[in-house]
Amino acid sequence: MRILFLGDIVGPPGCEAIRKNLQNQIEINKINFVVVNGENSADQGVGITEKISKDFFNCGVDVITTGNHVWDQKETIDYINNEKRLLRPYNLINPSPGKGFEIFNSKNGYKVAVLNLMGNIFMKKCDDVFNAAKDFISKNKLKKDFDFLIVDFHGEITSEKMAIGHFFDGKASLVVGTHTHVPTNDARILNFGTAYQTDAGMCGDYNSVIGMNKENSLNKFFKKDSKKHFPSNGEASLSGVIIDCDIETGLAKNIKTFIYGGDLANTH
Ligand SMILES: [Fe+2]
Asked: Which member of 47, 137, 206, 238 has the lowest number of beta carbons within 10 Å of its beta carbon?
């Protein structure tokens, strides 16, 4: 069972890279299931729309996760109730529209569960993520309730992500971080069989400041005249991980970093 996870898709260049390359990459790499984080995919680089979600599904995406920007496009508040393949963080403060966990049927006949968590440190206020994870795992078990479990941890700091990785070790197929938009060089299998990478990186233009126009971002840091942040419009790189899972255990056999196209691939 081979699963592709792609990090935060940023703005029109990120969407274009998905439209142009994803179906080919699914075929070339023999991917069975695709999860992407779509929370920066709207034109402004924050939030997601119904149209963009449908585009992603048409390109072969099975599930879209999100994070702190999930409600930045107001239409998502309604749309998420009608589209179970679009998740919001599981530990948002209740009540919140949509769901943060769902079990999906893969095209090759397996039950793939996806859990979307959000960190607490330097993030919008949400319920304690470690308590939420503990509560979740007391009710949901790998190979009993589903064949594979993918955890997207949307968070700012590496220690929180690594701690969650170890918490889920042996209980999830993959724990991967999102939100920082920079891929980390630590893809590995943890002691008890969970594939892990601290951050998947973004699917966006890397000749930028985390996907946003670099001149405008620098002006902001120098406190000069600047516009609202807007996405950088160069060719996007796709960035994420590919894992192979054992069908008997649901755990990972290997993980490799996946980087395709754009500035990151060309200068890597
Ligand atoms: Fe984010």
From this structure: 137
